[in-house]
Design brief:
It is a single chain. The longest helix is centred in the middle third of the chain and has 10 residues. This protein has 319 residues and is of the alpha/beta class. It has two domains: 265 residues, Putative cyclase (Glucose Oxidase, domain 1), CATH 3.50.30.50; 30 residues, no CATH class. The strands form three sheets. The protein has a nine-stranded mixed sheet. The protein has a two-stranded antiparallel sheet with strand order 2-3. The protein has eleven helices and 13 strands.
Length: 319
Amino acid sequence: MTTKLFSELLQNSPKNWGRWGPDDEVGALNFLTSKEILRGVQAVKQGKVFMLGVPVARPAGDPIYPGRGKTTRTMAMDKGHYMNCHAHAMPGGMEYADDVVFMYLQGTTQYDALGHVWYDDQLYNGYDAKSTIGGLQKCSVEKIAERGVVGRGILLDVARFKGVKHLQANEGISLDDVLKTAEMQKCTIEKHDILLIHTGWLKRFYDEGEDAFFPGKTMSEPGLAYSPELVDWFHKMEIPSFGTDTVASEQTMHPESGTMIPLHAALLRNLGVVFNEIDWLHDLAEDCAKDGQYTFLFVGAPLKVVAGAGSPVNPAVIK
């Protein structure tokens, strides 16, 4: 099979370029108005809080895209420095600990900047890909962080809908799967909802290890499967953002076109939909199945990384 170029695959795909003016850098987050934030607040019924970030710098390793280096945390100051006289207590006797971390900004639960991916040398909203050289001068994650991602969220427990602990490698989630999952849960996906899609894949990393999570040391994840119908639905529903419990938030390889992560092109680059990845959704999914409440206030607050292509985040779900 010959792999299609995105320019061919997506030639009739909708775009939001220019919808919010020529200087827009936050895309579909423009849908999250004050009214939408209040709609999210109205979804809070119980006061339960779920934090979706995964642990960072575990000695056993973190779920990081193959090729990205392991996150490392090192002590810059601890009791040992005082014991060997490399440091002295402050006046009054105070001592302290300090540490540093080296990590890929997308090496944990994170947001993609809208300038993170491109094709045909153009980012979201038509910005030149050369604007990424040395740091994202356009569509950086700083713009997303300045705005925040706040609104009504809805969990779609696709793994439970399919009756499995986790989906299989490269298993696709169709638009029909999305809609039937919501129907099974007796909840309605509304315009401008922030979607959280539970596949069970991330729990596999912690239960079975890296070899099961990255079979053959390569990416082969389940997730939303590209189709023109799915993209048109995202466009019609004006979905601002979605998150999943996988590294890339979509089916890794699209079998019909031979392309890799085509929704990053169709949704992020063309529609300005903000991707939130590596969310810990297991506990939230278990709780939603128990109490039947699948909607909530979602709060995503990435770091204001200047010119960054992505940022760590610890999203909050409040039911």
